[in-house]
# Entry
Amino acid sequence: MVITEIFKSIQGEGTRAGLPCVFVRLTGCNLRCVWCDTAYAFYGGQRYTVEEILERVRALAGHGNGRVSLVEITGGEPLLQPETPALAVRLLGAGYTVMIETSGERFVGALPREVIKIVDLKCPDSGESGKFDMANLGAVDQKDEIKFVIASRRDYDFARDFTARHGMAQRVGQVLFSPVFADPEGRWPGLSARELAEWILADGLPVRLGLQLHKFIWDPAMKGV
Ligand code: SF4
# Structure
């Protein structure tokens, strides 16, 4: 497998935000979201066998009472690499709770059911809207999460309407609305979390506001956190 980085940090997003987690970031993505904050994972990387990844995860997660039990497979787009389902099987077999963060463009149904799938649904301002594989709606369940990253009122309206039209709040355990975080180098603007919170409250939506916790804890431009 081609890997950009393996590191231990705090889970920054979703319903497990705040928990210690080991991240396995796979190299390569076939999308180019305008506000992508992991473009450094598009190219390069280092070859690892599944066994070598497991060893690295084990070393970072530690042992005994203080063992980190949560592992996230992310990218880039982790479902582009054919060995990803096998990696997930091995991590589950080693006793970890396994999450995967994916763009939604690839079908998640080949992953073991026990894997917690965080599936993005790209809004218009990402520049990659319309790429979602609609078959994924039938492949997620109550332990999974659907995430809309929102850059504007137009994105919010899209996410709200999609959530209602497809009964997303019933299909998955959590629907996440996350504001785009402004690029530290000024390449794209952010959306105010307060503005998004006020839209959600005004419409009474059954969704969770998601903030990228790691960007508040560390420098927003920092890698490996
Ligand atoms: S799908 Fe994810 S990794 Fe790929 S360009 Fe979009 S935000 Fe970046």
About this structure: Residues 29, 31-33, 36, 38, 75-77, 103 surround iron/sulfur cluster (CB under 6 Å). Residues 78 and 127 are 20 Å apart (CA to CA).
